[in-house]
């Protein structure tokens, strides 16, 4: 579990995060949503230690990130997996070598154990036969799955995903969403996803945090969001006619069941 308490971050006197408090739960997909400039990226960078908050605390199972020594921070980072927006695979390495790389850098496993673990991760994301290929030889969806395999290679307790569906077609996005959700549940990971994808919100949003102008405006599940009485949230999530119709249908079904 990750607990954020009264987190504030300012840049040259301009407050970007304004006392944000939230709890990210283990074994669940926790989604952070909000408009561009709302503070989502700054929040994510503070959570992974790339930025230091102006005040407040970030507790990783009771360990306050803001008070850790350099050695303690290094150890904590090895408990984190990261899926970047552009996959960020090494072009000069094969898919297998990309997954093997963090194991070679940070794991104390034997060489055979590292190879076995890397192959297990590729198998888990349905890339069993793609290990010999280079990133330039695979599709965008396969690259994203390879990035997921690399992110879970060290068996992380915490998984961060920055716009994991960026650049993917709707069908492939659904596959990636489901894969992230399955891995989160299967390995009891605390997963945090920074996203603009409303399909992700509705499909895998077990816990959703809506950030507006540096404040936590709303939180709840993808079921709660359908009945949410928050104008800013509704304007953001149901901006398109398609999602407005989805909400109308879902609300009607819920009321029919009551």
Features:
about 260 residues, Rossmann fold, ATP binding, six-stranded mixed beta sheet, globular, alpha/beta, nucleotide-binding
Q: What's the topology here?
A:
Blueprint lengths: L1 E10 L2 E11 L4 E5 L6 H8 L7 E6 L2 E2 L5 H8 L2 E4 L11 H12 L4 H14 L15 H12 L6 E5 L7 H17 L3 E5 L3 H7 L2 E6 L2 E6 L10 H7 L3 H17 L1
Parallel strand pairs: 3-8, 3-9, 6-7, 7-8
Antiparallel strand pairs: 1-2, 1-4, 4-5, 9-10
Helix pairs in contact: 3-4, 3-5, 4-5, 5-6, 6-7
GO molecular function, one term: ATP hydrolysis activity
Keywords: ATP-binding, Nucleotide-binding, Transport
Protein name: Phospholipid/cholesterol/gamma-HCH transport system ATP-binding protein
Helices and strands, in N-to-C order?
EEEHEEHEHHHEHEHEEHH
- Would you give the CATH topology of the largest domain? Rossmann fold
Helices and strands: which structural class?
alpha/beta
Query: What number is the mean pLDDT?
Result: 89
Structure annotation, total helices: 9
Domain ABC transporter: 2-238
Protein name: Phospholipid/cholesterol/gamma-HCH transport system ATP-binding protein
Pfam family, one: ABC_tran
GO molecular function: ATP binding; ATP hydrolysis activity
């Amino acid at each position: 579990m990750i607990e954020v308490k009264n987190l504030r971050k300012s840049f040259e006197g301009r407050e970007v995060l304004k006392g944000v408090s939230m709890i990210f739960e283990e074994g669940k997909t926790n989604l952070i949503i909000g408009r561009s400039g709302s503070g989502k990226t700054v929040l994510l960078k503070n959570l992974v230690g790339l930025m230091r908050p102006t005040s407040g605390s970030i507790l990783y199972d009771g360990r306050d990130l803001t008070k850790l020594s350099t050695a303690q921070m290094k150890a904590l980072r090895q408990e984190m997996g990261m899926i970047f927006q552009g996959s960020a695979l090494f072009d000069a390495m094969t898919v297998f070598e990309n997954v093997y790389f963090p194991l070679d850098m940070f794991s104390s496993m034997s060489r055979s154990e590292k190879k076995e673990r890397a192959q297990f991760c590729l198998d888990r994301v349905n890339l069993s036969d793609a290990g010999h290929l280079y990133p330039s030889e695979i599709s965008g969806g396969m690259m994203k799955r390879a990035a997921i395999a690399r992110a879970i290679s060290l068996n992380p307790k915490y998984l961060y995903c920055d716009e994991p569906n960026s650049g993917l077609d709707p069908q492939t996005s659904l596959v990636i969403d489901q894969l992230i959700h399955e891995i989160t549940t299967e390995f009891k990971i605390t997963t945090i996803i920074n996203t603009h994808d409303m399909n992700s919100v509705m499909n895998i949003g077990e816990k959703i945090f809506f950030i507006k102008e540096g404040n936590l405006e709303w939180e709840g599940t993808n079921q709660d969001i359908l009945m949410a009485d928050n104008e800013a949230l509704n304007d953001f999530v149901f901006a398109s006619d398609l999602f407005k119709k989805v909400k109308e249908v879902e609300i009607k079904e819920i009321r029919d069941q009551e």
